[in-house]
Amino acid sequence: MKLPLIIPSLCHLCGLTIDSTMSHQLWCQHCQDQMTFQVKRCRCCGLQTETQTVTCGQCLKSPPPWQRMYCLADYRYPLSTLIQQIKRQKRYWLLPPLARMLRGLIPHPAPMMVTVPMNWHQYLLRGFNLSEVIAHEIAKSTPQTQLMSDIFHKHSRTPRQKTLDKAARLRNVRHAFSLHQHPKAHHIAIIDDVVTTGATVRHLSELLREVGVEKIDIYCLCRTPNDSIKSPKPQVAHNTRK
């Protein structure tokens, strides 16, 4: 009798064989260790600091409209590679384990979670909203938390954030989002996949503050370091004179 052929699962990141002891067969233990390696961060803005601190100097000088930010790691390999696979190759099944890892970092979840919306045409192209998938997975293990995915409305015809520098991102989001309905909670968590300059979550937090929300947390998979934020390349003016 022929024995069935067992094909080992390979890591989506490094391509090595995944140990059978892993709770999932998506990436290996080595790559997961890199994702979960914790560094010293400001608990307010999520950026790396030399010593563990609740509030860094920049947040003391200019406090953001939220209180706490929770993230797995910086937007660098291996998480940056996974998120690009999820977005560009529509591998949404890679999200749930990441969301569960993020949930493990949050000792006291907010009683309400809201998500960052997408334009309807972007949603149709991708087929899912990353922040909604993350929020639904967190909500599974947090039954006392209410998930509201329609608090905000995103307007069409605004430039994509990744094409803009930090100052332009702040101006852009002023026209990109509005409050669709008033939440009935004083403590809310905003769910996003990656926080880059913080322009989007800042504006959404300000909208919540305007209607009386007292405490706001940010839950995200990655925080982009300041030294990794690139300005868009300037357009070269071509000489049209003959």
Biggest sheet: strands side by side, in what order? 1-7-6-2-3
Taken from the alpha-carbon principal axes, the silhouette is globular
The parts where pLDDT drops under 50 for at least 5 residues are 234-242
Structural class: alpha/beta
Strand content: 15-25%
Helix content: 25-40%
Query: In the CATH hierarchy, what is the class of the domain at 69-227?
Result: Alpha Beta
CATH names the topology of the domain at 69-227 as Rossmann fold
Note the gap between the termini.
81 Å
**What is the string of SSEs from the N terminus onward?**
HHEHHEHHEEHEEHE
Helices, by number, come to 8
Domain Phosphoribosyltransferase: 159-228
Pfam families: Pribosyltran
Family: Belongs to the ComF/GntX family.
InterPro entries: ComF/GntX_DNA_util-trans (IPR051910), PRTase-like (IPR029057), PRTase_dom (IPR000836)
Q: Overview of this structure, please?
A:
The model is unreliable at 234-242 (pLDDT under 50). The N and C termini lie far apart (81 Å). Helix 8 links the parallel strand 6 and strand 7 (215-223). The protein is globular and about 55 Å long. The protein has helices spanning 29-36, 57-61, 79-88, 95-103, 120-126, 130-140, 166-173, 199-210; strands spanning 68-74, 112-115, 146-148, 152-154, 177-179, 187-195, 215-223. The protein has a domain at 69-227: 3-Layer(aba) Sandwich (Rossmann fold). The protein is built from eight helices and seven strands. The strands form two sheets. The protein has a five-stranded parallel beta sheet, with helices on both faces. A two-stranded antiparallel ribbon has the order 4-5. It has 242 residues and is α/β, with parallel strands linked by helices. Helix 4 (95-103) crosses helix 6.
